[in-house]
């Protein structure tokens, strides 16, 4: 345990503490939202729409947040996003209609996008190609630890009134904002201008990975409970299956990081796309037992986690530090867009094709994505190491980065 702790970069410890506090605050309110909405007369369909509205807010805000980071610094944007979330959370107790809840959820999505684009940009700017996967993996670990403890605190706060969980979330995000002032500024002076079109042309393969991951994540979290219900499986089996999916996604990139650094990130992305697609297409073909579904969920989580973390790490390797913000904004926007369309696709397949076909779109799109990577020979991409001479340097960051030809 001590060795694992020492593997955490000391300069990122304050950021990880901030992520744990954010996760704790979010974990207090997110599991309670369906209950609170239902008590206000919001139907299950409307609750789903509210989730889509939040994701739409994030999709709309991620790219502007990335531009703001490139023109300013990650610390300023992170603190602003956390303070904004603290304010928005206090608006929930005053919402009582579908419209008012929709406005608050949209604002919430905008604020979360600002925060997480800033966090990912901070990690990308401060990491070397060799440490980037590890640092991004700890990001998920610390945020997940806080989120896991949040529901326990919610049990204590709920008897105090509907306002209490939101006030608790607001408090923790505000404390995270105050602690973020310990972070140093990381403003970057651009060494060379890279247009957004050229950036998208160079990175579209890795940005698409975020979209595939988002479709898979929303399919598992939104439709798997219904699949288990119609299949007659118990709540314990559902909990174990979802935990397998989440743990596979969090732990696998961290465990594989030394091997990935030796063999290349791009090659592992190609393999992860193939495994995610194959696993999604296998779901309808499984026999009736739940054990195989649990094992497949672990494989889906592991391949999805590798797909997301390694693609994000590749973007950090390839993009000039002065454009990290906008690049991560494109990546986050693609992920949020998948959360908008994913529930609709999964529910249509569930209702009109069959309960076990809820991930069919992930399998098909994942296969198409894998073919794109293979045909473009993406596995041959060698990410720059910190010892290489840069072709498009940022002198202020001290780390080489280059863009592949468009």
Describe this structure in words.
- The chain is mainly alpha-helical.
- It folds into 2 domains: 170 residues, Up-down Bundle (Growth Hormone, Chain: A), CATH 1.20.1250; 188 residues, MFS general substrate transporter like domains (Growth Hormone, Chain: A, Up-down Bundle).
- The protein is built from 14 helices and no strands.
- The longest helix is centred in the middle third of the chain and has 36 residues.
- The N terminus and C terminus are likely disordered.
List keywords for this structure.
406 residues, mainly alpha, Growth Hormone, Chain: A, 2 domains, globular, disordered N terminus
Second CATH tier, the architecture of the largest domain: Up-down Bundle
The CATH fourth-level homologous superfamily of the largest domain: MFS general substrate transporter like domains
Q: In total, how many domains does the architecture comprise?
A: 2
Give, in order, the helices and strands.
HHHHHHHHHHHHHH
Low-confidence stretches: 1-6, 383-406
- Report the mean per-residue pLDDT as an integer: 84
Largest sheet: none
* CATH topology grouping of the largest domain: Growth Hormone, Chain: A
**Outline, from the CA principal axes?**
globular
Query: In which range does the helix fraction lie?
Result: over 70%
Q: For the CA atoms, what is the radius of gyration?
A: 21 Å
Annotation, overall tally of beta strands: 0
